[in-house]
Amino acid sequence: MVGRVYILSKKDPKKNGQIMLLGLKDLHSEITVSELISELRPPAEFSTVSFENYLPDKAFPSQAEALMACSQFAKGLGKGKSETKGLYLDGGFGVGKTHLLASIYHTAKVPKIFGAFLAYTSLIGYLGFAEALNQLGKFKLICIDEFELDDPGDTMMMSRVLKELSLKGVSFAATSNTPPNALGAGRFAADAFQREIQSVADKFQIIRIDGEDYRHRSAEYLFKPLANGTVLDSGKRTLDVNFDELLDFLSAIHQSRYAKIAEQMDAIVVREIYEIQNQFEGLRLVTFIDRCYEAGMSFAYTGIDPTGIFRRDHLEGAYQKKYLRARSRLFAMNARFIGTSAQL
Question: Which of 156, 220, 243, 332 can pair with 215 through a Cys bridge, CB separation 3.0 to 4.6 Å?
Fold first, then answer.
């Protein structure tokens, strides 16, 4: 099957029946430096979040405490010097860290940018260290979502960037990527953060956020496959693609381009899903899932249950936190599809 995107005619988006079919080759992935900088903002999923619509779980007091600390930090930016250059939100996925990080961004009244850890490392790699410092130094607040602690090279590169920028008066806010089973286990992410970026860690106030994954409360993920005979909504930009074809496509472009790809779609239907054997393919898919989730996309599938996409030994290995986060987000995307298009 050839991957295809269903898009209503641009000439008359309200007129039914005018559908333009596009293949994977028609998705645009090229991006300029100015676009890289301009895209450093909260993705669609977090474009309207605020401190007001963050609802702390009363069973976990640390959530309310984090809300207060983040609000005070954001409102204090640009109003004088502080010994605290930033906040580091430490906790498992699904406790609202990115919600709070985006709320800091929306509230702060200073020049600011927001991006995933990968976006910043890609920018540095693309521009070179000196020019990246020049570009990033134009901002007073840098928000870093899901600070990666499992790649020593990238971690130390970011450590150097943070050190240089902090000397220029830049403030930071970051979230961690603690796996659920590390909660309470010696403050896993906080300790790792302080160890890996020694030169600037003491400038961060570390905020612990406990809680359960808000995307689902049950012990198991209850994915629902695409029902036979389902007709895709022509009013949505939907990529309909075989799994192996998607993996080949992702391997052909740099991961920094995935956000641009995701922005061109409202939903994705992946057919004939199977267990990924290659870890590189698995990690590329994880990054793509992150960008799709952030873009507010929905997900449908055929083939094996998505809980089996990643091999068990990979799930239990060094990149556990990435795989588990991706699986949680994939479940949320599937719920979106079921909720909005079950009767198409």
Answer: 332
